[in-house]
Write a sequence for this structure.
């Protein structure tokens, strides 16, 4: 072998790398197997813990903890029991919470939850913060407010959830301010919390911020409005539609509009330069329009934008007094083929929805 | 050393004395360097994926506490291109109509099928002609008509002249009513909660223009009425090895690139796009085979080169199950096509390579894809050839030959074992211990023959790309998943 000596170093290196790769692979495979065994053992333990504690927690929730002797709660089982306790807190209503809280105090959940809320792995911190929210102790509010500003999304949202749980009206302004400052808080995630907090508690803070906010913030706040449906909500929306000139704000607000007072403004927006606003105005007219709007919507069915034509046709069919005969007559008068096609489309779609009992 | 090996004659046309040892040495360094660099880069991707998977595992630990659903999910149009799918289409559509999502529609586009795909749809869903005011935001082949069902108002069927998969998707984009569109293959099965998961990046970040889920293989799984009933590892070895390949490709091939916003492919089998971004980009290209990768790269190019802020995301726990080829002939055709597609995409978007404005896409993902995917079969084949020639001509010893093979084997094994680790850490999809052992066996077996075959097929792909062969819809014999197991 002529070049074996020249090759020596390379071959030794290749051999070393190859063997190292084999050893690492073997280690990884071993780790996978160990993880599988550990995971299965963990599942079994979790099922046992739940089987042992679920009846006790349910009894505490429904009849109070009484003076029953509770089994010892080893440290390694605490997270599972706390998760079960939170699950019951979320699913039960009324006095059941009091029973669960008394039991939690007997078991020392508050101290443990505080320790977890302050430091540690993400999962533990979230469990700790949510537990503190359910316990609702005044002394934990400062801790929760601090956690609200946590850089990690899940922990800060868990703190928001806890604060809203303890005092929804008092916490709503804090939480909404935090939301506006945090692009990492998705509207849907906060929406879940606001829905649980209740519209009456959330609406004042939300509506106040909505009117005072800049357009970019209004765009983030508007989807949350559905969780703040109060008698004042409609008038705030109308005010927003009347005062805003941002196309995105207008298009989101118009779609939620239901009050008749905004009709003149909506009609004016039907000729807005932005197609997004025109199509949202058509949607709004579908909600609040009058028979007189038929002509306006018919004209909009000849718009250059497909979506404006589509929404106008849908709105036309939704107008009060939009009877089949009258619409057929209106259709016959249409010169524009696109408008006619769109009306046929919307008409057939409505028929489908009526037949299917749902919305497409 | 075996006697027969020692007795092999040296190649007469190579005279060892005439070869400069420095060439041999340089060749050795080239292959070792390539291997080390490839392994290191994969390890980096793997570490990134591990970090994200760790977060996923933490979320799993707190279960519902990390969950949210306030009814604010954006509407989605599911687009299903269909060509000769009469055996699977009814079950596929039925399962899509039962997804756990508040606001969506299903648009099936029959792309001039030669079988009775359209008839099956009409019969199964009581379709009626619909006077759609069809808009042509994207140019497509002639549309014969649209059909809708009074029983399922959210189902739309388009019947059109054959124009290829991309054309079918574009036709469905034109008919979409929602702001997000999700492209799903007709032979794929979505998990009931997959849409909710894959849409999250759009809800969490307004800059997101596309998001992809994980494609897993349904071979061996029990599927009834278009729903996944039980996950299993396929008995067929060709499919079984592909399970490992898919885990590798999705769990760190994609998860690793996503945080750098340098994901170069959103799978055509399951990807969500912002409709406006898709239309602005011109829809799926009808001129390339790798249309899913081409679109993803085009979105990168449009946004990067115009300096716009955007994100392309990947959601590892949004699963879509699809049937993989079980015969080498079908697999060959798929792999040849995929590799040609890859080369076409890299060539089409060569402006991204090392472009100062292309960021991680141009400076990391593109060069990586070129060096370690596109030309990898050439390097691998060259390695096999050079080392065989050298050993047969007596220039290096047989032990040296085995050492280099050990190196290649060890690297392949390590990558696959890594993927299994990620899977076990976060998802544990294959719950039975037997499944795990079957996958462990597959990561060993794939190194003996399967990998080399793949290299050969990819070389064929390179050849076909270089010689410019025409593309066609890929056809695969389906077993059908209407009522029962797919295997």
């Amino acid at each position: 072998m002529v070049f074996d000596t020249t090759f020596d170093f390379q071959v030794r290196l290749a051999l070393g790398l190859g063997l190292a790769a084999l050893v690492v692979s073997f280690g990884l495979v071993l780790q996978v197997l160990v993880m599988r065994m550990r995971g299965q053992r963990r599942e079994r333990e979790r099922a046992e813990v739940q089987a042992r504690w679920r009846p006790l927690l349910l009894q505490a929730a429904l009849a109070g903890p009484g003076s029953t002797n509770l089994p010892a709660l080893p440290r390694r089982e605490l997270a599972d029991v706390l998760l079960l306790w939170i699950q019951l807190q979320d699913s039960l209503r009324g006095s059941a919470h009091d029973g669960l809280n008394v039991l939690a105090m007997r078991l020392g959940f508050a101290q443990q939850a505080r320790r977890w809320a302050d430091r540690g792995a993400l999962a533990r911190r979230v469990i700790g913060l949510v537990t503190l929210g359910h316990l609702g102790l005044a002394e934990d509010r400062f801790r929760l407010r601090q956690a609200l500003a946590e850089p990690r999304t899940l922990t800060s949202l868990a703190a928001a959830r806890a604060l809203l749980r303890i005092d929804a009206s008092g916490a709503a302004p804090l939480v909404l301010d935090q939301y506006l400052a945090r692009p990492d808080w998705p509207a849907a995630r906060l929406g879940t919390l606001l829905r649980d907090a209740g519209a009456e508690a959330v609406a004042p803070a939300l509506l106040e911020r909505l009117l005072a906010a800049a357009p970019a913030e209004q765009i983030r706040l508007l989807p949350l409005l559905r969780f703040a449906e109060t008698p004042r909500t409609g008038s705030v929306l109308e005010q927003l539609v009347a005062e805003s000139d941002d196309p995105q704000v207008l298009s989101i607000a118009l779609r939620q509009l239901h009050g008749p007072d905004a009709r003149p403004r909506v009609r004016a927006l039907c000729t807005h330069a932005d197609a997004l606003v025109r199509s949202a105005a058509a949607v709004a007219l579908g909600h609040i329009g009058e028979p007189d709007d038929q002509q306006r919507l018919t004209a909009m069915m000849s718009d250059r934008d497909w979506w404006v034509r589509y929404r106008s046709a849908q709105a036309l069919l939704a107008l009060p007094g939009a009877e089949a005969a009258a619409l057929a007559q209106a259709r016959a008068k249409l010169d524009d083929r696109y408008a006619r096609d769109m009306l046929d489309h919307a008409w057939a779609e409505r028929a489908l929805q009526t037949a299917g009992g749902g919305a497409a | 050393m075996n006697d027969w090996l020692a007795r092999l004659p040296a190649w007469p046309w190579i005279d060892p004395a005439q070869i400069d040892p420095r060439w041999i040495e340089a060749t050795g360094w080239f292959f070792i360097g390539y291997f080390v660099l490839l392994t290191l880069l994969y390890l980096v991707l793997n570490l990134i994926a591990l970090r994200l998977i760790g977060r996923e595992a933490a979320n799993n630990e707190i279960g519902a506490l990390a969950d949210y659903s306030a009814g604010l999910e954006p509407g989605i149009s599911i687009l299903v291109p269909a060509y000769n799918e009469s055996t699977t289409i009814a079950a596929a559509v039925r399962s899509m109509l039962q997804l756990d999502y508040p606001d969506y529609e299903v648009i099936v586009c029959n792309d001039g099928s030669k079988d009775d795909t359209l008839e099956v749809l009409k019969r199964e869903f009581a379709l009626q002609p619909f006077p759609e005011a069809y808009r042509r935001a994207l140019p497509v082949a002639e549309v014969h008509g649209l059909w809708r069902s009074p029983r399922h108002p959210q189902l739309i069927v388009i019947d059109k002249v054959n124009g290829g998969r991309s054309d079918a998707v574009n036709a469905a984009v034109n008919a979409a009513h929602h702001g997000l569109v999700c492209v799903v293959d007709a032979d794929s099965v979505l998990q009931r909660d997959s849409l909710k998961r894959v849409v999250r990046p759009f809800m969490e970040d307004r800059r997101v223009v596309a998001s992809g889920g994980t494609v897993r293989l349904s071979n061996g799984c029990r599927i009834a009425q278009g729903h996944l009933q039980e996950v299993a590892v396929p008995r067929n070895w060709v499919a079984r090895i592909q399970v490992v390949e898919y885990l590798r490709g999705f769990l760190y091939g994609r998860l690793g690139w996503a945080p750098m916003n340098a994901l170069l492919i959103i799978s055509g089998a399951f990807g969500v796009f912002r409709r406006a971004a898709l239309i602005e980009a011109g829809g799926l290209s009808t001129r390339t085979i790798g249309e899913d990768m081409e679109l993803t790269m085009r979105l990168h190019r449009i946004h990067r080169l115009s300096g716009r802020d955007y994100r392309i995301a990947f959601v590892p726990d949004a699963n879509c199950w699809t049937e993989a080829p079980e015969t080498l002939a079908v697999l060959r055709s798929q792999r040849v096509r995929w590799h040609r597609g890859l080369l076409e995409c890299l060539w089409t978007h060569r402006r991204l390579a090392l472009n100062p404005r292309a960021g991680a896409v141009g400076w990391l993902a593109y060069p990586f894809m070129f060096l370690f995917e596109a030309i990898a079969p050439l390097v691998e084949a060259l390695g096999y050839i050079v080392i065989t020639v050298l050993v047969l001509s007596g220039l290096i010893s047989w032990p040296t030959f085995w050492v280099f093979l050990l190196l290649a084997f060890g690297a392949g094994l390590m990558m696959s074992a890594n993927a299994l680790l990620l899977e076990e850490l976060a998802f544990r999809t294959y719950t039975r211990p037997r499944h795990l052992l079957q996958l462990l066996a597959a990561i060993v077996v794939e190194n003996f023959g399967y990998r080399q075959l793949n290299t050969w097929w990819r070389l064929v792909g390179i050849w076909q790309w270089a010689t410019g062969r025409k593309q066609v819809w890929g056809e695969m014999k389906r077993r059908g998943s209407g009522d029962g197991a797919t295997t």
Chain B has one domain: 1-60+187-487. The first strand of chain B starts at residue 76 and ends at 82. Chain B touches chain A through 71 residues (CB under 8 Å). Residues 1-60+187-487 of chain B form one domain.
